Amino acid sequence: MKISKVEEAKRVLAPIISKTPLVHADKIHDNLWIKAENLQGTGAFKLRGAYYKLSNLTEEEKSKGVIAASAGNHAQGVAYSCMKMGVKGTIVMPKTAPLSKIEATRSYGVNVELQGDTFNDAYEYAKKLQEKTGAVFIEPFNDEDVIAGQGTIGLEILEKMPDVDIVLVPVGGGGLISGIAYAIKTLYPNCKVIGVEAENASSMKQSLEQDKIISLDTVNTIADGIAVKTPGTITYDICKKYVDEIVTVSEEEIAAAILALVEKMKMVAEGAGAVSVAAAMFHKVDIEHNKCISVLSGGNIDVNLLSKIIDLGLMKTGRKAVINMNVVDKPGNLSKVLGIISDTGANIISVNHNRIQYGVTFTQCKVEIIIETNNKKHVKQVLNELTKKGYTPQMAEYV
């Protein structure tokens, strides 16, 4: 691939895509900027690669129709491109894909089939379907045209901030980071391009570490858009050559980033889009001494999942806590416990008082208390006060 291909993709996409803004995320960190691809027309960067790929098909290929497999964002990118070009499309999505992404894909007029529980399951089915129908398969990431389309983000970043030190990019199959890394490293080699994966779906990181493409047995993450078991062959080779490093973030860190983006930046990010911001927030890279851009790759989050993710983010940052303890079952004891917590300034949201539970003696009862707090230091204060008064509080991991 040559840089001229990425520049051509930029010209082709100019009338179709939004040239998304570079937003200073000073409320998160002074040295952090966000490339807001969540503001793209379909809510994610995937429109770039999908449209450029379809634009390069011959009229004969377009007449056969196209097939794609996706967990959501590539599906919408291909579907939108089909609508704009008048091409018949079939999109295979996993059954576990967020309903919002399924319905959004259907809204562009393509046929949607739900197959399997993961992206890889959907991909395998789609490849078999393509062999039967003769339609053109639109790869989600392992294709030079798709990679070139995504690489236009790299060109836009350098236009806005030519002296950027670090660019953080979400990694699933590797199409986005391949395009961005190739464009940036070709034009500005001094900039570090660092990939970010979910800990529970780190196929590219492990592949690069083992110096060969590996497939994960399972992937399980709230960042469903990058839940890919096996990276692409083309993307692997490009990452090996141009990507400086790949780091990972936990589920709690992803949730905390989603919460910070909503609360501080007024931006909605899906899990896959927020991983790059999570890497900056939780010091996976040095942004104290470097100008850093996080590519927020998409905002198509399932609203039914959003409240759960926010709760997880609140717990990760010490804004909410669940305390479990056994207390002596006698009149007034629960009131004392609640009084101790209240005196620390914590807000009690709910109390569950259970007398009958395995492992609890007949003289005791188990109490679960959910509280709102200011930060982790405040949570520790609550626990210390309860311990001083003779109780043995335990923090629960999740709400």
Structural class, please? alpha/beta
Given as residue ranges, the uncertain stretches (5+ residues, pLDDT < 50) are none
Radius of gyration from CA coordinates: 24 Å
- Helix and strand element order: HEEHHEHEHEHEHEHEHHEHHEHEHEEHE
Mean pLDDT, to the nearest integer, reads 93
Number of strands: 14
User: Regarding quaternary structure, how should these chains be classified?
Assistant: single chain
Span from first to last CA?
Answer: 48 Å
| Count of discrete alpha- or pi-helical segments spanning 4 or more residues | 15
Beta-strand content bin: 15-25%
Rough outline = elongated
How do the strands of the widest beta sheet line up side by side? 1-2-10-7-8-9
Largest sheet: 6 strands, mixed
The percent of residues in helical segments reads 40-55%
Annotation keywords:
399 residues; alpha/beta; 6-stranded mixed β-sheet; 4-stranded parallel β-sheet; 15 helices; 14 strands; elongated
